[in-house]
Design the sequence.
């Protein structure tokens, strides 16, 4: 493959891969604490994008009952993305209280969590459709500031200066933001008391509670963090392309599953690796087969489950008698 | 009066029967403790076989002969069963949520493939599938016997040696293995029977809906069918049937609610999962009745 095309594909893959990674981290921390898969995580992704869109003062050009409505103020983008993601985080907490906690306190079949979170996802998707409408919402092109607006792509090529490689500035920003979030998260989980308590709850909630860790509080914080990451990923994808409507998060919700299984369910570095692998694999699908790009994540998921069910980084499952 | 009722709700009634049968296809592997969400994949395959056969190979003018429809169901069922053996043997080594995710991947791969093949009509799908009946309601002639046959078969199977082996594997696979029950054989068997049911339902549904496309076999459908089984009750044959009928009818029942009906639908799904841990129909309901008498 031509080196120029290779570098371009590689950078594209890296950019989308880091977004997959932060989205999938939201899935995986919930799984590591509660052992359940939160099917409403894709809907949280959608919500985060919508929240940020309205917080920067965007108008609703959809046909829902709130058509042409908008907030009377507009926050700066950096503040909006933080507040929007935080709001998505609180939606995650709300979902935990309504759909997961009642099941957990009763010790119900974990399968029911799949159905109850699916119900929540249906509520969110249809609520967005009802209030906002099914139309595409686009972030203004200068959302990252005038520099990006005037320089939509950065050109470089150190190998062959006569043929510069255009990289969208938005992608560089997304990559940088994702990288910062990943580093902060790694610090939070591995180096702080909060992270230590979180890992203790994940290992064994009963022992953790005996050691003075408030399990309920950490479950609350886990869902807040998970929702925040989901909402942030939604906003980043929304600014890179556009918000394609209430079903915006569905594809990402599914791909996120592939990402966390690829890396090892509940494994945090694994989710990052899984995101990068799937992002890169999709970027390198040859043009002739681009229609099959959507299936790449699932083909990888299926193969990895058959060959190495514990995922790339997961611990081997020990069967207890 | 009845005539107008059937005209209005004939379609819904047949659809309820078809979805109830589809719920059994997920219920069967679950009796053996295997959470397989592959049903929509086989459902889609059966539908595509019926759609392709009836629009190309057996293309007829006027009414589509019913024996051909039955033949398509047979073909759809067999093809799904064969594919289930190929997929099931490696996939059923996985447990719990891992199996569920592998089967979701299987459904998604099939969906993307059918979206891109020429024979399946690509993204548009297949249109104008010939009709063997004059009205929607008349589909009951094939849908209802299939449901009854599947219910009787499943209920009988549960009482048989094979059914007991399924339960033994569900409760403790290792212990079952130690007692001489072959887990792989029985797990694949349950998976294959479920797939065959889904394939047959797909073949009828393709004619019933008159059009078939990649949207028929999606992840959403997987979870919907799981909801049929879990809300209806996963410990008795009657559970998924009742769940399938009720949840299929629910958006229609909620029609008077107006635009927010799909929101209410999702809310009721969550409420059902939270409030009915055993599902609507559980063996306990029947046992309690016996004590009262």
Sequence:
């Amino acid at each position: 493959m031509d080196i120029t095309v290779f570098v371009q594909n590689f950078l594209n893959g890296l950019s989308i891969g880091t977004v997959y990674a932060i989205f999938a981290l939201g899935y995986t921390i919930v799984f590591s604490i509660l052992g359940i898969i939160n099917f409403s995580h894709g809907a949280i992704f959608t919500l985060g994008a919508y929240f940020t869109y309205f917080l920067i003062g965007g108008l609703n050009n959809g046909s829902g009952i709130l058509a042409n409505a908008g907030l009377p103020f507009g926050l700066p983008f950096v503040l909006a993305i933080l507040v929007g993601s935080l709001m998505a985080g609180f939606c995650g907490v709300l979902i935990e209280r309504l759909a997961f906690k009642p099941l957990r306190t009763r010790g119900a079949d974990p399968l029911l969590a799949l159905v109850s979170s699916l119900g929540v996802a249906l509520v969110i998707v249809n609520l967005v459709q009802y209030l906002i409408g099914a139309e595409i919402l686009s972030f203004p092109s200068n959302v990252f500031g005038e520099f990006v607006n005037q320089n939509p792509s950065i050109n470089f090529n150190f190998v062959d200066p006569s043929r510069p490689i255009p990289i969208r500035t938005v992608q560089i920003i997304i990559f940088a933001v994702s990288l910062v979030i990943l580093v902060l998260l790694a610090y939070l989980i591995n180096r702080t008391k909060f992270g230590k308590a979180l890992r203790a709850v994940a290992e064994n909630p009963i022992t953790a509670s005996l050691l003075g860790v408030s399990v309920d509080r950490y479950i609350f914080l886990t869902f807040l963090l998970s929702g925040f990451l989901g909402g942030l990923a939604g906003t980043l994808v929304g600014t890179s392309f556009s918000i394609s409507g209430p079903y915006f998060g569905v594809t990402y919700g599914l791909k996120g599953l592939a990402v966390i299984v690829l890396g090892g369910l509940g494994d945090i570095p694994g989710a990052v690796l899984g995101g990068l692998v799937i992002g890169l694999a999709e970027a390198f699908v040859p043009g002739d087969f681009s229609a099959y790009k959507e299936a790449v994540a699932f083909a990888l998921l299926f193969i990895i489950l058959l060959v190495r069910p514990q995922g790339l980084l997961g611990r081997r499952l020990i069967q207890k008698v | 009066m009845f005539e107008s009722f059937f005209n209005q709700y004939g379609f819904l009634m047949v659809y309820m029967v078809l979805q109830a049968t589809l719920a059994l296809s997920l219920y069967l592997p679950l009796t053996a403790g295997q959470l397989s969400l592959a049903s929509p994949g086989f459902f889609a395959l059966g539908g595509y076989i019926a759609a392709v056969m009836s629009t190309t190979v057996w293309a007829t003018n006027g009414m589509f002969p019913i024996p051909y429809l039955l033949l398509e169901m047979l073909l759809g069922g067999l093809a799904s069963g064969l594919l289930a053996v190929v997929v099931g043997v490696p996939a059923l080594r996985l447990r719990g949520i891992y199996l569920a995710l592998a089967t979701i991947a299987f459904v998604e791969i099939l969906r993307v493939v059918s979206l891109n093949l020429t024979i399946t009509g690509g993204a548009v799908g297949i249109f104008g599938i010939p009709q063997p009946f004059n009205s929607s309601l008349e589909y009951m002639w094939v849908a209802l016997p299939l449901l009854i046959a599947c219910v009787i078969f499943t209920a009988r199977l549960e009482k048989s040696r094979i059914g007991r082996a399924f339960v033994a594997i569900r409760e403790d696979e290792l212990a079952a293995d130690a007692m001489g029950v072959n887990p792989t054989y029985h797990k694949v068997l349950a998976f294959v029977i479920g797939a065959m049911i889904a394939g047959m339902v797909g073949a009828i549904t393709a004619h019933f809906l008159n059009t078939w496309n990649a949207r028929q076999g999606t992840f959403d459908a997987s979870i919907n069918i799981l909801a049929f089984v879990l809300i209806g009750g996963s410990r008795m044959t009657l559970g998924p049937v009742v769940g399938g009928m009720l949840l299929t009818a629910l958006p229609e029942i909620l029609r008077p609610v107006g635009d927010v009906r799909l929101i209410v639908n999702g809310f009721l799904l969550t409420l059902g999962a939270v409030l009915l841990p055993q599902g609507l129909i559980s063996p306990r309901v029947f046992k309690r009745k016996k004590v009262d008498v």
User: Anything to note?
Assistant: The CA atoms of residues 87 and 115 of chain A lie 24 Å apart. Chain A has one domain: 3-307. The domain at 3-307 of chain A is CATH 1.10.3470 (ABC transporter involved in vitamin B12 uptake, BtuC). The mean pLDDT of chain A is 87.
